[in-house]
UniProtKB/TrEMBL annotation:
Pfam family, one: MARVEL
Gene name in the database record: sypl2a
Family membership: Belongs to the synaptophysin/synaptobrevin family.
Keyword Glycoprotein: yes
Record keywords: Glycoprotein, Membrane, Transmembrane, Transmembrane helix
Membrane topology: Multi-pass membrane protein
Positions of the MARVEL domain: 17-218
Protein name in UniProt: Synaptophysin-like protein 2a isoform X1
Record's subcellular location: Membrane
Membrane-traversing stretches: 99-123, 135-155, 194-214
Chief site of localization: membrane
Amino acid sequence: MDSVQKLASGFTLDLGPLKEPLGFIRVLEWVFTIFAFATTGGYSGSSHFTVNCIGAEPKDVNPVFAYPFRLPKSPYQIPPCNSSKPDDTYLQGDFSSSAEFFVCVGVFGFLYCTATLVLYLGFQHVYRQTSRGPTIDLVVTATFAFLWLVSSSAWGKGLTDVKWATNPGHLVMNDQCNSTCKAGEFPSMGRLNASVIFGFLNLILWAGNCWFIYKETPFHKDPNPPATMEEEGAPGP
């Protein structure tokens, strides 16, 4: 209880850091991080093709898939042109690792941005009191920049594979179609395309912010330090 009271008493709201690159870029990171994982998690879509049997109405087939893109998880059925019972058919490919890794980086990045914004705006005196705060901030921010590079690249490749695996033109090559299937509309993946873009935008933001955090650390030396009395020398007679 005492520690909570001490923490609350030390809180001093100061919006000044938001006017500086350090705080402003962190807000941008917070926003774009939300966009990155929100456009990926919760996505669901479907492919489409039709089965055209002679003397019968075309039948629609809509294979459904969703995040985290374990495609064989949701079976679908291709209606046969004879009276036999249709068998379950599965989309091929499990791309959950790259998708979940991307979302995980986004969620943890969001949490870190939230924590550091509270630190910047409410405990700026604690942040600048020693060199430990900026140094840890620099290391964590650089680590997230690297993670955004890896996760965005992996998810970009995974999304390409998802598009291929759910392409109606690829699905109608199934042996059960027997040349009776016609490819329909391609799944809408605008959200997923945006997620990859947001991922690389986060890479730029987090990598660029490393410079401004670096300037807060003792590793950065002012190229024009203020002159001291000894450097100025004694005044002439």
